[in-house]
Structures are given as C-alpha cells and as structure tokens.
Amino acid sequence: MPVPMMEQATPQACRFADDGETPNNPVLPLLVYRRAFDVAGARDPAAPFEEAFAAHGWGRSWRNGIYDFLHFHTRTHEVLGIACGRARVQFGGARGQELDVEAGDVVVLPAGTGHRRVSASTDLLVVGAYSDNSGFDQKRPGQIDHAHALAAIAAVPLPRQDPVYGAEGPLTTIWSPPMSG
Fold first, then answer.
1. What is the four-CA torsion angle of 2, 159, 35, 90, rounded to 10 degrees?
2. Is 15-160 a domain of CATH 3.40.1190.10?
C-alpha cells in the first residue's frame, strides 16, 4: 500500500548568492517541502519518494546519505527526499545557510546549489534523483572554472514537473520562466 503524501503546502524558498567559489543558482531558489510524505511506520520509507520522483520525471534515483563535503551540480537539478532520520545540511556554499531536515521532508536543489551534510542521525536515509531532461556532474569548489560553471548552470532546462506533486505542483509556478512583454 503506498504511503500517502501530506496535503500540498507551499515550500520554503531559499536563495543563495554566488560566493565566488560556489556558484549557486542566480535565478532559481532552493525549495524545502516540510512533511511532504508521511513515512512513520512505513515498511520501506524510501519507496514513496522513489515512486513519486520517477512518476514526475525525476530519475536516476539512489539511496544513501548526503556527502559531508561541499559539492554542487552544474548540469542538473537534484531532489533529496529524507526517508529516515534527520540531518543538518548546509546549503548555498561555505557562507550558506544550515537547515534541519527530517523524515518526510523533500529538498529541491536548482543546479549550482552547494550542499553538504553537517550532522545526521545514525538512521539517515536519503533518496536522491535528478531531473530527467538534464545531464549529470558533481563538482567541488575549485574543480571547475567559475565562468564555465555559471554558463553550464544557465543552460540546464527547467524540470517538466514538480518532483512531489507533478505538473500542478508548486515548483512549476515558483520556477516558471519570467513573462516577457
């Protein structure tokens, strides 16, 4: 029996400036969906994240934790679903912001957003995935020319759907391209 999603809520949006080492994303905010899934007591708490992400165009999923070193992706957007446990994660690079995440939460990182695990419970289990219409890379500050990283980030297409709620989810509005006129 699938684990139900909680009632749709507006995610917390966080913006991070380029700090000269971690590019972050100059246009799109990081999105934090609190308690997106009710996984309490689930036999396989990772499964609902995997199923929702795959159904909404976020593939190449994995189960693991969050690296303890600062890194970012210049060719893809990433989603992290917290299936078990809790963690404190620094987003936005060395001068970014630390946020606590716990089982049921989902974090959507636009391309370029720096992230690293600061601390975690021993039972932390994360489901990660990437927008299907993008490539993949993983960089640390200093591993890529900064101008090249910014150009690559700007070329990553918007995802077709919100990884949790699909075509009508908040991401599709919050990350929509600006109207020209």
1. 130
2. no
Residues 6 and 33 sit within 8 Å (Cβ to Cβ): no
User: Which amino acid, residue 58?
Assistant: W
pLDDT tens per residue, range 81-124: 999 999 999 999 999 999 999 999 999 999 999 999 999 999 99
CA max distance for the chain: 52
Contact 74, 146 (CB under 8 A): no
Residue 112's alpha-carbon distances to 19, 35, 55, in angstroms, are 12, 25, 24
How far, in Å, CA of 77 to CA of 120, rounded? 23
Count the residues in the chain: 181
- Report CA-CA distances (Å) from 88 to 12, 20, 92, 144: 16, 24, 13, 26
pTM over 0.90: yes
The answer to whether 112 and 28 are in contact (CB under 8 A) is no
CA 139 to chain centre: 16
Interstrand relation of 58-64 and 97-102 (parallel, antiparallel or unpaired): unpaired
User: Backbone phi, then psi, for 172, in 5-degree steps?
Assistant: -65, -25
